[in-house]
Amino acid sequence: MPANAPLVQDLHTIPRKLPDTGRINLIGLTRDGMRAALIAAGTPERQAKMRVGQIWQWIYHWGVRDFAVMTNLAKDYRAFLAQHFNIDLPEVVTRQVSSDGTRKYLVRIAGGHEVEVVYIPEEDRGTLCISSQVGCTLTCSFCHTGTQKLVRNLTAGEIIGQVMLARDDLGEWPEPGQGTGENGPRLLSNIVLMGMGEPLYNFDNVRDAMKIAMDGEGIALSRRRITLSTSGVVPEIARAATEIGCLLAVSFHATTDDVRDTLVPINKRWNIATLLDALREYPNASNSERITFEYVMLKGVNDTDADARRLVQLIAGIPAKINLIPFNEWPGAPYQRSDRARIERFADIIYHAGYASPIRTPRGEDIMAACGQLKSATERERKSRAQIAAEAGLTD
Ligand code: SAH
Ligand code: SF4
Questions:
Q1: CA gyration radius, the chain
Q2: How does the average pLDDT of the chain come out, rounded?
Q3: Is 246 annotated in the active site?
Q4: Could you give the percent of the chain with pLDDT greater than 70?
Q5: Is the separation of the CB atoms in 82 and 67 below 8 Å?
Q6: What is the extent of the structural domain holding 181?
Q7: How many whole angstroms from 240 Cα to the centroid of ligand 2?
Q8: I want to staple 362 with a disulfide (CB 3.0 to 4.6 A). Which of 17, 100, 228, 370 is the partner?
Q9: Residue 118 scores a pLDDT above 70
């Protein structure tokens, strides 16, 4: 291939060659993708499936990054792999630890772009909040990420790479020869696609990355420990169940179309009634796999008793829980957090209607790691304040 030939764009099926080395990064390839890549590089077809199984275990079970360590492969074959392939993760630029133990990683991906990843430890589990896009095409008026233009979708490798680098930092890969490391509680036990970006606008890469996370010969997280949050991309919602099988969260945030048009502008495309129809048909919804309705509490905007009662009426018949998120402030944000008493009253009304209504405790606020505070500080392409206000319908 000539040096200046265009990079292969279809990352889902065809691995991308790294521009500097001409080697292909194995991270993020599905099993089928890896098999195809091994064959294309010269691995005999009849051996390829077995080789994928071996390499997969090294990379995703043991966390190995060096072909030389893959001792169940012949030396020549290891050299062949090193010649054609890389095992590359995105680079961690900074790592901040909050006073409450929350960790935020600023991660650099190809092209010099940056995304943020947040690890939230709890007593018996730990949740990793990962990003699916640099920036976001949507412009929810209360969300910091929404003030940043979409720069690009993350590749599957960059998405699963976030999980792997967090496991690196937590020291959670098992030691070769020391058992599987699966007996104790996991530090990183849950994944939420609630970082930067709208995951349903980068569906194929999100799906491939989550399939890697769920693969039993590797990271082996159960599908029920992965939650995808969407602002309401109605035509893609069912795929989260049929192609990934994960749990679903929806950024609901308002009980009338007027208010939701302002807060979550995608509502102008798919309104509340249309969204609720899609949720009623969500293939996996059941009492054991309820849909989470996220509801950000904005003072004087969406937090009245009437809102709470309307919310309960709207979601009737959907196996649901409501996660109330006290608004997290960011510089220049046009909203304030509802008072604690107001949030509790709102939660009570929902609870008495028969729904779980936990109030999310903000985590990592001191390092700007809480929900909706993520943004790549160094991204140059920003929307102006006026543009944000206009898009959110906040101007006259
Ligand atoms: N784009 C997806 C996932 C990322 S946002 C989505 O919108 O669902 C994850 C959650 O944080 C969403 O429910 C979002 O509405 C919420 N959020 C955004 N900004 C926030 C803020 N400033 N305070 C509290 N929650 C916020
Ligand atoms: Fe994008 Fe979600 Fe933020 Fe809306 S809330 S701007 S969809 S990241």
A1: 22
A2: 88
A3: no
A4: 85
A5: yes
A6: 91-391
A7: 18
A8: 370
A9: yes
- What CATH code is carried by the domain that includes residue 95? 3.20.20.70
| Better-scored residue on pLDDT, 54 or 124 | 54
**What are the tens digits of pLDDT across the range 249-263?**
999 999 999 999 999
Closest ligand relative to 147 C-alpha? 2
CA of 67 to the centre of ligand 2 (A): 39
The binding-site residues of ligand 2, defined as CB within 6 angstroms of any ligand atom, are 136, 138-140, 143, 145-146, 197-198, 231, 251
Ligand 2 nearest-atom number relative to CA 229: 2
- Global pTM value: 0.89
Same domain assignment for residues 33 and 114:
no
- Domains in the chain, number: 2
Arithmetic mean of pLDDT, 117-126: 93
Instruction: Name the residue with the closest Cα to ligand 1, atom 17.
Output: 372
User: Are residues 135 and 113 located together in one domain of the fold?
Assistant: yes
pLDDT at 47: 97
Q: Which of 114, 116, 158, 294 is catalytic?
A: 116
* 229, 330, 343, 361: residue to mutate for ligand 1 pocket, most atoms within 8 A of CB: 229
- The pLDDT assigned to 101 comes to 93
Task: Return the pLDDT at 19.
Answer: 56
User: What is residue 381's predicted lDDT score, i.e. its pLDDT?
Assistant: 41
Which pLDDT belongs to residue 376?
A: 54
DSSP 329-388: P-TT-S--BPPHHHHHHHHHHHHHTT---PBPPP-SGGGT-STT----TT---B--HHHH
Backbone angles phi, psi at 291, to 5 degrees: -85, 135
Asked if 35 and 52 touch (Cβ cutoff 8 Å), the reply is: yes
Tell whether 264 and 288 lie within a shared domain: yes
Active site annotation includes 172: no
